[in-house]
Design brief:
The chain is mostly helical. It has two domains: 155 residues, Tetracycline Repressor, domain 2 (Orthogonal Bundle); 127 residues. It contains 13 helices and no strands. Helix 11 packs antiparallel against helix 12.
């Protein structure tokens, strides 16, 4: 039961969500001035993320059953009933929102609610309708750092929105590379991912290039808005250029190997940027 629950809650996504939430909180307070507040923020956010992932599994059970990479998941293999999974998903989200509302602030709970709704009601069904689903899905994917910021400040300041846009643009090369690697699987399930419907890959290449390019100036904005210092400016500018350079092989030749390079680089980018932020605020 525990193993199935861990798989349903998509622990790797939860880790990404919590990490970006910490970044937002950390920059909002310029350190961690309220450990208890951070703890409640992370707990509420984790429950909302876990519940959303569980309900996503419920909604996409038929789709997952058609894909090689997902056909052995908990729900397609009937290791847990849909009713049990639905109950757990709703329960997690309900407790998560309650914690954020009671222990953090109303604004953060509203953002969490918007994240859940946009992920489950907009992004998930849109995957079968239009390739624009990646950009729509990037919205709930980019809200956690803004939620961390509002948890720390109880306000929607420019700093929080800058973090939102950094994560928004970072996600596109990351998820387009995944979609390219698994495009046959997505096609089999009838999902309208851009690499699936893009004959010749011209649109995929263009979107990867543009989002990686725009990320370079966007990533430096925390310095110009007084949120971060010179360590961050140099580090973020360097990392974003490396990210862009690692997209170039795929732009020139659309192969699985080059798509995997984008994917791996995106993960390193994210981890290294996190440590640069910590170092910058500390020193």
């Amino acid at each position: 039961m525990i193993k199935n629950l861990i798989e349903l809650t998509k622990i790797r996504i939860a880790f990404l969500v919590l990490t970006t939430t910490i970044i937002g909180f950390y920059l909002g307070q310029q350190g961690i001035q309220s450990p208890e507040l951070l703890l409640y923020t992370l707990l509420g956010t984790l429950l909302c993320s876990a519940g959303s992932s569980v309900l996503n599994n419920v909604i996409e059970v038929e789709t997952d059953a058609k894909m090689n990479r997902t056909k052995d998941r908990v729900l397609p293999t009937k290791k847990m009933s849909l009713s049990t999974a639905s109950f757990l998903g709703i329960l997690f989200i309900g407790f998560g929102l309650a914690i954020l509302f009671e222990k953090v602030n109303t604004l953060t709970s509203i953002l969490a609610f918007c994240t859940v709704v946009s992920y489950l009601v907009l992004y998930t069904p849109l995957k079968k309708v239009s390739w624009i689903n990646t950009s729509v899905g990037a919205i709930p994917g980019a809200l956690p750092p803004l939620g961390g910021w509002t948890a720390a400040t109880n306000s929607l300041d420019p700093g929080g929105w800058i973090l939102f846009f950094i994560l928004f643009f970072w996600q596109h090369p990351h998820f387009y590379s995944i979609a390219f690697i698994h495009k046959e699987d997505y096609a089999r399930a009838g999902l309208k991912m851009l690499p699936v419907i893009d004959n010749g890959n011209k649109k995929t290449v263009l979107h990867i290039f543009l989002h990686a390019l725009v990320l370079i100036p966007i990533s430096t904005l925390p310095f110009f808005f007084g949120i971060s210092g010179r360590i961050y400016l140099v580090g973020a500018y360097f990392l974003s250029n490396i990210y862009m350079l690692c997209c170039l092989p795929f732009i020139l030749e659309q192969t699985e190997r080059n798509a995997k390079l984008i994917f791996r680089t995106s993960l390193y980018y994210f981890v290294l940027l996190f440590f640069i932020i910590l170092a910058d605020v500390r020193f």
